[in-house]
Sequence to fold (156 residues):
Amino acid sequence: MQHLTWQRLAAVGLAALALAWILTDQIERGGATPLAVPWTFDVVCVAAGVLALWLGWQVRQYLAGKKPELDGLRAARTVVYAQASAYVGAIIAGACGGYALGLLDGWSHGPRREVIISALIAAACALAMMVAGIIAERWCRHGGDDELEQTDAQPA
Fold:
């Protein structure tokens, strides 16, 4: 399994942003009324990020020898969950940011401004989920993982 990189997360987020921006612009030109992002969306993103951090902390304690009863399979699942949280956070942040950008020309209209603000808050919560996934994934790395990456990158 490859470790997370900022480059991949940025590429995924920017692709989602561009796609959402284009789609929002086209749909709005078609006469559709934009809807605000529900606050439950923000709660779910933050809860997913907190769960990733909590699970990652458990694995970190296991790697430090403070929690020997933790199952290795649970540690592997935690890494997968942390990476998924980071990727989903990047996608959602990009999509909500693109939605807000697509509606930006209506900023002076009060109801549209509220929709834009709700999208920006959702993007911020998704960014928090992405950062939590990155942190949790880093906590799950074993000390020898970085050495293996360096030796694999060097030509033979």
Observations:
- The radius of gyration is 19 Å.
- Residues 6-29+36-142 form one domain.
